[in-house]
Specification:
This protein is an alpha+beta fold and 490 residues long. It has helices at residues 24-31, 34-39, 75-99, 122-136, 155-166, 173-183, 190-196, 227-234, 261-267, 270-282, 302-316, 375-399, 405-411, 414-419, 438-449, 463-489, and strands at 45-52, 66-72, 139-145, 186-189, 200-205, 208-213, 246-247, 286-290, 293-299, 331-338, 341-348, 359-361, 364-366, 371-373. It contains 16 helices and 14 strands. A hairpin with a 2-residue loop joins strand 5 and strand 6 (208-213). The N and C termini lie far apart (73 Å).
């Protein structure tokens, strides 16, 4: 069993949580011992809401912000989840190969590039889909979305597939401990926890009292509290501190953000993938699933697309009482051969789509002639830059409290700020997408799509001007706010 242990120093987790950091030796002793795993006392997950503003075109109403619950476990628990994910992943990959559907579920997997080194990413998967459209010519592309996927995975079905992968009738004690704590999991709200332990509260900023972290995140202790304080202040052992621990008592749902949840999201629809792959192949098309995003590319027109939607919707109902295809997110595009190439038009648009200029998949848009990065992806990038400009501008002012706005702007390190988002030297580009800036992501996308992607880099034209404007604006506003109390008192 120990030969399955392949953790390295890069796998060590350093975020603040309830437990103390472990060495690689301690991690090995824990995760490779079924007895230790079965007896492990799992801490509650930390819950926070990941939110983002959906893209809108200039003539559209501003949509509501979207949120997604993210839960992450204590370090020792995360190592266990990750280790058992690797054990189960080997069995899952072997099952995919045996069923001949290794090219269908594409998320959260190491899918090798044919004839090239490294694994595929969303750029490659989008290219595969658009290449299939090109191959078929007269075809329909059907994109379906599963509503609240992670939150609606049925626990009994998860356990059944888990047992089936292991080839057992009942889960062994160690696997059952992992299963139980990823389904009937406990969790605490992250912000409430930090407040309870004295790391979050009122602090002075620019002459005002506002809520925030009372120390920088980088200075947070890795173990947020002692075991005694955990029992007293978090679990409710002290009567003056009611318990803040919650439990998932529903018969469905796994925490999005845990190291094993992505694998569960993949193997949960194993039977569905087999059926849908067979459906598409029998009609000369292709089926792909990226977690909760389903794609069918089939020869024909509206009737074939409609039949595919009905078939997938009916089939989905067999895989859990809470699982549903979200009709409002369904998109159907028709491609037709023409003398000058493929032509495109929508048969059905998602209710939140604001573009009619192509079929969107995995962050890209294809109109039958050219590939573009989705407008919403560009918009989110610029929002990210604006947020970073605001934070860095504020920190710059705090470090230089005596300087006025002009001097602050003059000494701000724009090139250093730009490095996080913009161009990088060619020799520093790697196949590890985690090291990419947005510009290098666009560059790789343009290279992958070839002549059809020749407009991609132009979509980020004007970045430097935008970046400087946002940083300048953030500094000017923050300085004005800093001076406001003195003006009022005068």
């Amino acid at each position: 069993m120990e030969d399955e242990f392949d953790f390295t120093a890069e796998d060590l987790k350093h975020y603040p949580h309830f437990d103390a950091p472990l060495s690689l030796r301690e991690i090995r002793r824990l995760v490779t011992s079924p007895e230790r795993v079965a007896a492990n006392s799992f801490y509650p997950f930390f819950l926070y809401e990941e939110s983002w503003q959906p893209y809108r075109s200039a003539d559209a109403a501003k949509p509501e912000k979207k949120t997604r619950p993210i839960r992450y476990g204590a370090r020792r628990d995360a190592y266990i989840f990750a280790f058992y994910r690797r054990k189960l992943s080997r069995l899952y990959e072997a099952r995919l190969r045996a069923l001949g559907i290794e090219d269908c579920p594409i998320a959260y997997r190491q899918v090798s590039k044919e004839g090239r080194g490294g694994g595929k990413c969303n750029i490659d998967f989008a290219k595969d889909a658009f290449d299939e459209i090109d191959r078929l010519g007269d075809c329909g592309a059907v994109a379906l979305d599963i509503k609240g996927y992670f939150e609606n995975l049925d626990h009994r079905r998860i356990k059944k597939i888990w047992c089936d992968l292991l080839g057992v009738a009942e889960l062994p004690p160690d696997h059952y401990a992992v299963f139980k704590n990823i389904t009937k999991y406990h969790f605490v709200d992250q912000r409430t926890t930090y407040r309870r332990l004295g790391y979050f509260g009122l602090r002075e900023r620019n002459g005002e009292m506002v809520e925030g972290f009372l120390r920088p995140y980088r200075d947070m202790p890795k173990q947020l509290c002692s075991n005694a304080d955990f029992r007293a202040k978090i679990c409710g052992g002290d009567p003056s501190y009611p318990s803040i621990i919650q439990k998932n008592d529903l018969p469905h749902g796994v925490p999005q953000g845990a190291p094993i949840s992505d694998l569960i999201a993949n193997f949960y629809l194993l039977d569905f993938d087999v059926v849908m792959a067979g459906y598409a192949r029998a009609r000369g098309g292709r089926y792909m699933r990226y977690s909760d995003d389903i794609l069918l590319i089939l020869p024909g027109g509206p009737s074939e697309a409609s039949a595919a939607i009905d078939f997938a919707t009916t089939e989905m109902r067999k895989h859990g009482p809470e699982l549903r295809i979200k009709e409002a997110k369904t998109c159907v595009a028709q491609f037709q051969r023409a003398p000058d190439g493929l032509r495109f038009y929508h048969l059905k648009q998602r209710s939140d789509e604001t573009t009619k200029n192509g079929f969107e998949y995995l962050g890209f848009r294809y109109d039958g002639r050219r590939v573009y990065v989705r407008d919403s992806t560009i918009s989110r990038f610029y929002s990210k830059v604006a947020g970073a400009a605001k934070r860095d501008g504020r920190r710059h002012i705090e470090k230089n409290p005596s300087l006025d706005a002009g001097a602050l702007i003059g000494c701000f390190d724009f090139p250093l700020f730009s490095q996080r988002f913009s161009k990088v030297k060619k020799e520093n580009l790697t196949s590890d997408y985690r090291s990419w800036t947005f510009y290098s992501y666009l560059k790789r996308s343009a290279e992958a799509f070839g002549p059809k992607g020749d407009r991609i880099l132009k979509q980020a034209r004007g970045f430097d001007k935008f970046m400087r404007a946002r940083v300048t604006e953030a500094i000017v506003r923050a300085v004005a706010k800093r001076k406001a109390p003195a003006t009022e008192s005068a």
